[in-house]
Amino acid sequence: MHILVVDDQPLNCTLLKVMLVQQNYEVSTAANGVEALAILAQQSIDIVLLDVIMPVMDGYETATKIKQLYNDVHLPIIFITSLEDQNSFERCLEVGGDDFIHKPFDKVILTAKIKAHSRTRKLSLKTHEQNKLLEYHYNQTEREHEIVEHIFNNALENQHKFTNNIDFHLSPASMFNGDMCLVGQSPIGSLYCMLGDFTGHGLAAAVGALPASKVFYTMVNKGMAVSDIAAEVNAVLVQLLPGYMFCAATIIELSSSGKSVSAWLGGLPDAYLIDQQGSVLKTLESQHMALGILEGDEFERELIHFEVDSSMRLALATDGIIETTNADDEFFSEQRFIKALASKPQVSCKDVINQVTKFAHGSKQQDDLSLVLFNCMAVPAAAEEQAAYSRLPFNFSLTLNSQQIKQTDPVLEIVEVITQVGGLKEHRSDIFLLLSEAYNNALDHGVLGLDSAIKNKEDGFIEYYQLREATLAKLVDALIIVDIRYCPDTLSLYFTICDSGNGFANTDSNANSNNREHGRGLSILEEIAEQVTYNSSGNQIEMCYRLAQQQS
């Protein structure tokens, strides 16, 4: 221990120094408060023995300054005094004194007081070091959290690109969010939205969001169906997450025209199709287990398909909304949520969340609050600089045999090839949709001879896809021919898809009705293409797609 003796009498300084050095203390001396402060600024002092009456700066002023300057760690001040009046003692305590030693000095009492305050000093030093260590680790954790939060925000948030279609609110119960809202646009122009809620909240709940978001965006960029996206996200989460973690989710796809919706619902509260006044037009109930629970062969792909228009909205929420409680432990509930949606025309997420917060009335938020209001409006195409159309004509022809049909899905590769031609990239979404619908129709209903009416049965989707897989595995002696011709003079693309199947009768009727209950169907081709025709056998479709008005 290093002790500072401050006294204007040299004899007192010498006497105290001898007594303390005999007990193996390190001792420094000062003649007044100014010298004492200078020593304190240069050396580490553990206890100050301070005289009251001194020239230049007395003990009262010195004690006050010491306590002000060195308050991080307790620095004991023991006053040296010959004063006996009560007022002097009280003042010594007021300015920061911790104890007294009366003159003349008693060695036994001095030793006892020094030892007692040494223990206090050591404890204070230890506490200070622990606090510094805790502060260091806290700052490190905060820094790491900031980095991770930055990564999460950049990886997950894409909603602001679609403000006309998406109004959303994410309010985490802690720094990290167990809920996620993913939004992306596919090559065919459709707008996808996935609202997910992982088990729990905070960082542990958020870790599954990164792999899920990667799968979502990858699948959306490939223009995959909602059922395929759900299945792929499920497969990844089953592999990565522990058994007690899963992700309740709703995944929806709004067609680029804003006229139809496909939805997969697994584990979240009911979603609602509402009008501009907030009245419920349709309740979308959860049909499936949450993502990350079932193995691939058990996973359920069934979707809900329905038609919409620009006056309709979809309301999606996590259970944090309806399970918010007030002081009486009442839930906000589905009924209050429905009333909140209808509380005003064109209600916003902010309006609904304000009602949830008002209901909670100061109760601590227990779970993440996430809400999406999805406007069923036509989706604007991604803005890209218009490239000049190529002036060179070209033909593209591809013939697939049975083995190639089983092993490949050629549509994406074909689209990649032909959109390299000048000016065609802007039309990628329409080209993808035309080829995808026509090719899949040729495969499913032409080559494989499947009937969409199977899907109308209970568990019809499962039966349909099981039959499709079994029939495709046995396929022999089949052909699908894809022919594409670009005409720069008329700025048109001509598509011909022919299959070796038996075709169908009354082609116009079938073309307009096929799959209407279960997806976009061929009817949408007539909305995109300028002309769609079928041969008399029903196994060949020809489409003319106009790129633009003829350039001068």
UniProtKB/TrEMBL annotation:
Residues 2-118 form the Response regulatory domain. The modification 4-aspartylphosphate is found at residue 51. CDD domains: HATPase_RsbW-like. It comes from the Bacteria. InterPro entries: Bact_Sigma-Reg, CheY-like_superfamily, HATPase_C_sf, HATPase_dom, PPM-type-like_dom_sf, PPM-type_phosphatase-like_dom, Sig_transdc_resp-reg_receiver. Pfam families: HATPase_c_2, Response_reg, SpoIIE. Keywords: Hydrolase, Phosphoprotein. Gene3D superfamilies: 3.40.50.2300, Histidine kinase-like ATPase, C-terminal domain, PPM-type phosphatase domain. This is Fused response regulator/phosphatase.
